[in-house]
């Protein structure tokens, strides 16, 4: 755990790449299929005011727009033309449902131009939140490490006590 923490501290740029890759993979393969991941990512998009891993265009190649896996060429053309759907969690707060549904289903370019969906990616926003709360995360990790060390000490004391009891029985 200490080694992992040191590695994260030294290689924060690689950690950012891992976060971006994980978020993009979650969007591409799991959104709309895995209910837990879908709900979790909807919460992330709403709370962080973001859309997609790096932006709304990440939704063009997602299974969300192509659930049966057919018509990949159409999805590619749709990406170029900007006619792919984004989830309703990408819509800005305070919009009416009808306006949100219309722009998010009509096309992403229209939605971006109309300022109805978030244009920032979630991966960079997630890293900002992580960096903002890095001392809290460090404190939690240290508390867990201390708990593990104390559990190990108590288990050693218990082991020695049981051995002493067995020694006196004989």
**Total number of distinct structural domains:** 1
What do we call the CATH topology? Answer: Cd81 Antigen, Extracellular Domain, Chain: A
The helix tally amounts to 8
The top-level CATH class is Mainly Alpha
Distance between the termini: 42 Å
Question: What's the count of strands?
Answer: 0
H/E element sequence: HHHHHHHH
The name of the CATH superfamily reads Tetraspanin
Helix content: 55-70%
Biggest sheet details: none
Any guess at the CATH architecture? Orthogonal Bundle
**How big is the Rg?**
24 Å
The residue ranges in which pLDDT falls below 50 over 5 or more consecutive positions are: 71-79
Mean pLDDT: 79
Overall morphology: elongated
Strand-pairing-aware structural class:
mainly alpha
Query: What proportion of the residues form beta strands (DSSP E)?
Result: under 5%
General description of the model:
- There is one protein chain.
- By secondary structure, the chain is mainly alpha-helical.
- The protein has a single domain (1-125), classed as Cd81 Antigen, Extracellular Domain, Chain: A, CATH 1.10.1450.10.
- 68% of the residues lie in helices and 0% in strands.
- It contains 8 helices and no strands.
- The chain has helices at residues 2-10, 12-30, 35-48, 72-81, 97-106, 108-113, 122-132, 134-169.
- The longest helix is centred in the C-terminal third of the chain and has 36 residues, at 134-169.
- This is CD9 antigen-like.
- Keywords: Membrane, Transmembrane, Transmembrane helix.
């Amino acid at each position: 755990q200490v080694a992992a923490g040191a590695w994260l501290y030294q290689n924060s740029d690689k950690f950012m790449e891992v976060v971006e890759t994980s978020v993009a993979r979650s969007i591409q393969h799991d959104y709309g299929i895995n209910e837990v991941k879908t709900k979790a990512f909807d919460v992330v998009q709403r709370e962080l005011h973001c859309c997609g891993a790096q932006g709304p265009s990440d939704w063009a190649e997602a299974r969300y727009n192509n659930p049966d896996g057919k018509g990949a060429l159409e999805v590619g053309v749709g990406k170029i033309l900007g006619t792919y759907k984004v989830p309703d969690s990408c819509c800005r707060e305070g919009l009416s449902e009808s306006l949100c549904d219309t722009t998010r289903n009509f096309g992403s370019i229209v939605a971006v131009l109309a300022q109805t969906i978030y244009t920032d990616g979630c991966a960079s926003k997630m890293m900002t939140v992580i960096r903002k709360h890095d001392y809290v995360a460090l404190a939690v990790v240290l508390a867990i490490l201390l708990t593990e060390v104390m559990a190990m000490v108590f288990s050693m004391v218990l082991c020695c006590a049981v051995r002493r009891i067995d020694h006196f029985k004989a």
